[in-house]
Write a structure and sequence with these properties.
Number of domains of chain A: 2
Number of domains of chain B: 1
Distance between the termini of chain A: 53 Å
Largest sheet of chain A: 11 strands, mixed
CATH topology of the largest domain in chain A: D-Maltodextrin-Binding Protein, domain 2
CATH architecture of the largest domain in chain A: 3-Layer(aba) Sandwich
Largest sheet of chain B: none
CATH class of the largest domain in chain A: Alpha Beta
Strand content of chain A: 15-25%
CATH superfamily of chain B: MetI-like
Largest interface: A-B, 43 and 43 residues
Oligomer: heterodimer
Shape of chain A: globular
Number of helices of chain B: 12
CATH class of chain B: Mainly Alpha
Radius of gyration of chain B: 24 Å
CATH superfamily of the largest domain in chain A: Periplasmic binding protein-like II
């Protein structure tokens, strides 16, 4: 019987396979040539990704620069400029062999000295780099193609860190000439080379003819990268209506971050390619654990108990296709870390329990100062609905609307607020998740959680790491570290592009222009 | 006359000093700073402090202000933090689209506004007058960005006749340049032409009631000669003032229109500089715009001399 059942179960799977592969044109390689015009939300603050955490900087930059490792389709690290590595000394010594014959855009061959200069500069300047570099004892170029990194203690995070899209490998001369200031020459090993930057017009990159592609098939953002288009123009188009009008009129091949409420209208246009990227971010309300009314655990638990996430997410995001109710700390798309275990306090919708908890806490109507912003509509809208739900059980919420820059400034000061809203973006390595750290605004410092995070950093076996993540989730919900409201997705629009891979990591290699 | 010119020229200096100080203080009152923009949203406070030191922004404000005065005295507007070039160079690179946009906007507003005003005055209180003035009222009420967006939708997206956005520099072809500027110039000029039309009409009406117009009609001059030769010359002075103001307004409007049409001009430069908190650029551009305004004012005052020989400036 069992075999029969599983045989039947295979039918839909087989149909699915036929359907998927039936989209035969997708298997054909895109043609070479043309200029890809990408309408971006703005101008990167700098192209030197060692000095910034702005996403748009790497989205443009990594067409020119590559890192030692990158992420596969499961968001796990795989070699990029590295060939392979060995781990010795009980997990403390990483010997990384670099690929041979990889050339920079200036014609020079990549050596371990270049890798060392860039990795050290990133560890000195970049926000994530600095976190990781704390565990690095020393790094050295053992020979022209071998980089050795000694750690103070074993770490499962090193390879993830080396796969950061911000960790560009520059020639040693470029890294040294810049020092701590932004680099002056844009020279990398990527499939595209820098041509020109005309501020507020475009950043132009062109195919690098001597690019040394990896031999493996594309896998996530790794594997073989091919520059099908001759040039890419990254054009800053800050007005969302203009980006949309431009792609509808056929002036752009890509429009970044359109409004989700346009989805149904745009779907009707057969020339546009619409992709929903589900791996994006989750909305959170972060309570202040250090000072004020929310530092009382029972009050936090009361808030957790009352919230009904469906109306909150619906108000925040708008279109049903763009949000998901899920309480796990990592996304279902991150198969390695996503788990329902430990998710005990999500979407409880229990008013009685909330009232009881408030009574136990001795809450007597002290105003909960919630700071949010209208600059990101989802932040204000989610806070507004949550406030209403909280006030139904006796909370008094003082919703303060600030501009984003002021909010960021204020959230660093514990005496000024009790809750703030933000979006938590996806992090490939759970140990590097910034919002779980004790010094992140909200100051959620919890003995058990800190111990587990420490274990997570040291552990490199994915299975054991996953078990630690589950235990962290349990603490997250028991202590109400933050309130997770739900996942929200982003929309990508393309036109006449073939081979474009919708990914949370925007890239245009392997994509060609149709027509 | 010479003393007058000298006095007017000297008066520019205190104005510039006030503008320099105000722009310096205002942009720094806004939350955020170049370091936080450069470093991105996830940067820690320590990262920011490190970057501020690298950018030389850790000095006290009065010290920075005095340094800024000192550089200004030498005619140096400083270096852009993000564009990695002198502010003057950044502005010069952006002048072409803004100048052409303002030029075409002004030309359009004159070409539409002045004749419309004259015709309305000549056919005062007729259906022609009323429909022109109704149109002018509509024109004054529509914000130029809305007109711009509507035109993008109709001529760019639906009809596909004109490019939706972007700018083609002159050296890539005059025709392509004109095409890229047509919609922005119309959305700027059309709105301003309404103002020009209303002023031309009312000052024409005033002049047409004058005694000397009556006498020119009495001596048998054709209506054409009366209106275009005798009346217009006197009526045009208030219009000229308005055109002067219009040019100034157009520079302000260009800030918005350049954003709507994605034109890399001075307007976009200042908008992105404000958003990026690129202090030197904001200060420099505000100063240059203020200078342009004062110079245009001076030029308008001097233009009166040419048009109306009765006007004389004395020291």
């Amino acid at each position: 019987m069992t075999t029969g059942k599983s045989w039947i179960a295979c039918v839909p799977a087989a149909v699915l396979v036929v359907l998927l592969t039936g989209g035969a044109p997708a298997q054909e390689a895109p043609r070479f040539g043309g200029v890809l015009q990408a309408a971006m939300i703005g101008e990167p603050p700098t192209l030197d990704t060692h000095t910034t955490t702005a996403t748009i900087a790497y989205q443009v930059g990594w067409h020119m620069f590559e890192s030692l490792y990158t992420l596969d389709k499961n968001y796990a690290p795989i070699p990029m400029l590295a060939e392979s590595h060995t781990v010795t000394d009980g997990g403390r010594r990483y010997t990384i062999a670099l690929r041979k014959g990889v050339r920079f855009h200036n014609g020079k061959e990549l050596t371990a000295a270049d890798a060392l200069a860039s990795v050290s500069r990133w560890g000195r300047l970049h926000t994530t780099g600095k976190t990781v570099w704390k565990i690095v004892e020393a790094a050295e170029a053992k020979d022209p193609h071998t980089l050795v990194i000694h750690l103070k203690e074993p770490s499962g995070s090193l390879l993830y860190a080396l796969a950061s899209p911000y960790l560009a490998i520059y020639p040693k001369s470029v890294a040294d000439a810049a020092g701590d200031a932004p680099i002056k020459e844009y020279v990398g090993t990527g499939p595209f080379r820098f041509v020109e930057h005309k501020p507020d017009r475009h950043i132009k990159v062109a195919r690098f003819k001597e690019y040394a592609a990896r031999p493996e098939a594309p896998n996530g953002v790794g594997g073989k990268r091919i520059a099908y288009v001759d040039e890419i123009l990254f054009m800053p188009v800050p007005d969302v209506a203009v980006r949309l009008a431009g792609i509808e009129a056929g002036e752009y091949h890509f429009a970044q971050s359109p409004k989700q409420d346009q989805y149904d209208r745009l779907k009707a246009n057969p020339r546009l390619g619409l992709d929903i990227v589900k791996l994006g971010a989750w909305i959170t309300a972060a309570p202040n654990h250090k000072e004020g009314v929310m530092s009382n655990k029972k009050v936090r638990q009361a808030m957790q108990a009352v919230l009904d996430m469906e109306p909150i997410m619906s108000a925040a995001v708008g279109h049903k296709a763009f949000y998901r109710l899920d309480g796990a700390l990592y996304f279902p798309e991150q198969a390695l870390w996503h788990s329902p275990t430990g998710v005990t306090g999500y979407n409880l919708r229990n008013k009685d329990r909330a009232r009881a908890l408030l009574r136990e806490a001795g809450y007597s109507g002290q105003p909960v100062r919630w700071i949010t912003t209208k600059e990101y509509e989802y932040m204000y809208n989610s806070a507004l609905v949550a406030r209403q739900q909280m006030e139904e059980v006796g909370f008094k919420v003082d919703l303060q609307v600030l501009d984003w820059a002021t909010l960021v400034q204020r959230r660093g000061k514990p005496d000024l607020w009790d809750i703030f809203t933000t979006g938590i973006t996806f992090s490939p390595d759970p140990a590097l998740t910034s919002n779980l750290q004790c010094n992140w605004p909200g100051w959620w410092c919890h003995e058990e959680k800190e111990r587990l995070l420490g274990e997570l950093v040291r552990e490199s076996d994915p299975k054991k790491r996953r078990a630690i993540v589950e235990r962290i989730q349990a603490v997250f919900y028991e202590d109400v570290g933050r309130i997770k409201m739900g996942d929200f997705f982003s929309l990508l629009i393309t036109r006449d592009l073939k081979g474009f891979e919708p990914s949370p990591f925007l890239h245009f290699w392997n994509a060609g222009i149709v027509k | 006359m010479k003393t007058y010119l000298l006095r007017r020229a000297l008066a520019i200096i205190p104005v510039m000093l006030v503008v320099a100080t105000v722009s310096f203080v205002l942009i720094r009152l806004a939350p955020g700073d170049p370091a936080s923009v450069l470093a991105g949203p996830d940067a820690t406070t320590e990262d920011l402090a490190q970057l501020r030191t690298a950018l030389g922004m850790d000095q006290p404000l009065p010290v920075q202000l005095v340094k800024w005065y000192a550089r200004l005295a030498q005619g140096d507007l400083g270096q852009s933090i993000f564009l990695r070039r002198p502010v003057v160079q950044a502005v010069v690179e952006r002048l072409e689209p803004t100048l052409l946009l303002t030029l075409w906007g002004t030309v359009l507003s004159i070409l539409i506004g002045v004749p419309a005003g004259i015709v309305s005055a000549r056919y005062h209180n007729t259906a022609v007058d009323q429909s022109f003035m109704a149109l002018a009222l509509l024109g004054l009420s529509i914000p130029n960005f809305l007109l711009g967006l509507l035109m993008i939708l109709v001529f760019g997206v639906w009809l596909g006749w004109l490019p939706v956005s972007g700018y083609v520099p002159l050296d890539e072809g005059v025709w392509r340049n004109l095409r890229s500027l047509l919609m922005p110039a119309v959305s700027l000029g059309l709105v301003q032409s309404a103002l020009v039309a209303r002023i031309t009409r009312s000052s024409m009406l005033d002049v047409l009631r004058e005694q000397y117009i009556l006498s020119s009609r009495a001596k048998g001059l054709s209506e054409r000669a009366v209106v275009y030769k005798h009346a217009l010359k006197n009526a045009i002075i208030p219009t000229l003032t308005v055109i002067g103001i219009t040019v100034a307004l157009l520079i302000g409007g260009a800030v918005i229109i350049e954003t709507v049409f994605n034109i890399p001009g001075v307007g976009r430069l200042i908008i992105s500089a404000v958003l990026r908190r690129d202090y030197p650029v904001v200060q420099g551009v505000v100063l240059l715009i203020a200078l342009t305004y004062t110079v245009i004012n001076l030029l308008v005052d001097l233009a009166y001399l040419v048009i109306d020989p009765r006007i004389r400036y004395t020291g």
